[in-house]
Amino acid sequence: MVFKRPECLTKESMHYCPGCGHGIIHRLIAEVIDEDYKESKIIGVAPVGCAVFIYDYFNFDFVAAAHGRATAAATGVKRCIPDALVFSYQGDGDIAAIGTSEVIHAATRGENFTAIFVNNGVYAMTGGQMAPTTIPGQVTVSSPYGRDPKVQGYHIKLCEMLVPLDGVAFVARTSIHNLKNIEFTKKAIKRAFEVQMNNEGFSIIEVLSNCPTNWGLPPCESMKRIENEVLKYYSIGIFKDKGRGI
Amino acid sequence: MKILMKGNEAIAEAALRAGCECFFGYPITPQTELLQYMAKKLLKSGGVFIQAESEVGAINMAYGASSCGKRVMTSSSGPGISLKQEGISYLAGAQLPCVIVNIMRGGPGLGNINAAQSDYLQATKGGGHGDYKVIVLAPSSVQEAVELTMKAFDLADKYRNPVMILGDGMLGQMMEVVEFDENYQPQKVEKPWAVTGDRNREKRVTNSLYIVPEELEKHNFMLMEKYKKIKENEVMVEEYLTDDARVIFVSFGMCARIVKSAVNRLRQAGEKVGLVRPITLWPFPENELKRYASKEEVEFFIDIEMNLGQMLEDVKLSVEGKKEIHFYGRTGGIVPTIQEVVDFYYSLKK
Ligand code: SF4
Fold it and tell me: Which residues form the Pyruvate flavodoxin/ferredoxin oxidoreductase pyrimidine binding domain (chain B) (predicted)?
């Protein structure tokens, strides 16, 4: 086997900071599409946030949505082209703050698309402010004394919130802090896409990712932080897979 | 065949006949029957109908569906349209066709659910962020609402731009006799930009992001050129008994119908009055008003609205200070009577 660039990635070099998890996650999506959906119709829905230029990196169609509205736009897309593989790609500020209403209702309706939710615990693009996913104690530029649940409230656990909803077919939380978990993330994406193409309902994968820039850590240290700190607050696993009785 | 229909339902029926395939909405008085009609028809015919979780959800679903090249409609009333403005700006920026119906109620804030023309400025001046324009059509009868709704879909596709039908609660709620052209065929427009997911061609992206200032400026200049073309080609206006008129009433939508009756009454009394009714509120019929402003025999203008003078600014810009303009408006969901309009006219003639 020769290790090469997935075919559905363009030659464009990515704008992400060195060591950022977005590049890894993009590659995983691309590998799954190359392996399983070579001929399929594919439509991605782009977010607002660090991944705002995601449409430059894949060579299939994209709809670029307003901040937080990707799951609403994806609803419109998938309802119009039901045989396409449709996924939204969103950061935590996008899907878990301004877009909470849109994602909960898309999930409740059982919309047949996949949300890929990249959780790095900060608003990265605007300079590292506190996100709804920022963990207790975490220092950010807008929680300079560390997130105090008594003052700023708790971190949001979107996956756990979505599991009980009837329209939701697949929920997983994964991470990319080491090879084993990168492999697990790919498997989860594969399964989520499969669930979607079987018309089972809404699927979401929350990927715990890093933001070396706004965490102020070198890339390797940032991966260790996921392992040592973030995982204490966010457990990893497949929380729901309706088709397989999970 | 002539049938009796409620305004909201007639607009919905007209949209379906114009090939509307998708509707996304959220209930709000006084437009809700439109949503209900769409639910009944689209769910049966294989179209897409979603009662969204909010107006924000609805307009962004419309954004997604329009990206796919479908004929799309959403509808609401004042407060809901305020919420939709974000999405409308994105639709305009990404050059996506969409028909948006606003059956206005009284504002600001929660206001009330009565007939009003409180959203003129919001509709015609952009409303959302950025340099953009929405084509705004203002029917003054249920029959005209039907015709303009059909036209709205063609205009939206032709210019790849959102088009708004701006009516008021009275238009939405009243029943009138309407006739649909049974031979009407919706225009089929090629949409070589539509996102369909097909892999055997260059990829397509619908987007309104231009991070490089020079590129965004170029995009905005291009949009401005498009708006200029719309201004040149699409102005619609009704001129009623204006040929020999010495006083010109200006009024739009249902309010103009009341003014028309007042004009008739004043004519019977020998007064030389006429009515200019903008049908497109954007583009505004500037040239038509300018023409009357330049006529020697025209003494002054009277602007009548169901708000506190939102269109007045456009009338003033068109008249260019050449003639005096008097304003009479009722607000809060109160509809002026014919007699009020007539009395206001005489109060000025004294
Ligand atoms: S700011 Fe953070 S999330 Fe954004 S590209 Fe840089 S490292 Fe990645």
Answer: 13-233
Strands B135-137 and B280-282: antiparallel
CA-nearest residue, atom 2 of ligand 1: A211
The predicted-structure confidence for B102-134, as pLDDT tens digits, reads as follows: 999 999 999 999 999 999 999 999 999 999 999
pLDDT tens digits, residue range A115-126?
A: 999 999 999 999
User: pTM value?
Assistant: 0.97
The pLDDT value given to residue B187? 87
Contact A88, A113 (CB under 8 A): yes
Q: Is the pLDDT reported for residue B350 higher than 90?
A: no
Which letter, b or e, does each residue of B306-345 get, where b requires 16 or more Cβ atoms within 10 Å of its Cβ? bbebbbbebbbebbeeebebbbbbbbebebbebebbbebb
- Residue A26: CB within 6 Å of ligand 1? no
A7 touches chain B (CB under 8 A): no
**Sign of the alpha-carbon dihedral angle for B253, B255, B257, B260:** negative
Kindly report, residue by residue over A198-214, the tens digit of the pLDDT: 999 999 999 999 999 99
Chain A residue nearest residue B207, CA to CA? A64
Set of chain A residues whose Cβ sits within 8 Å of the Cβ of B204: 61-62
Pairing of strands B237-240, B280-282: unpaired
Instruction: Please give the domain boundaries of chain B with CATH numbers for all domains.
Output: 2-234 (3.40.50.970), 238-349 (3.40.50.920)
Question: What ranges do the domains of chain A cover?
Answer: 21-244
CATH number of A21-244: 3.40.50.970
- Helices B213-233 and B142-159 cross at an angle (nearest 10°) of 140
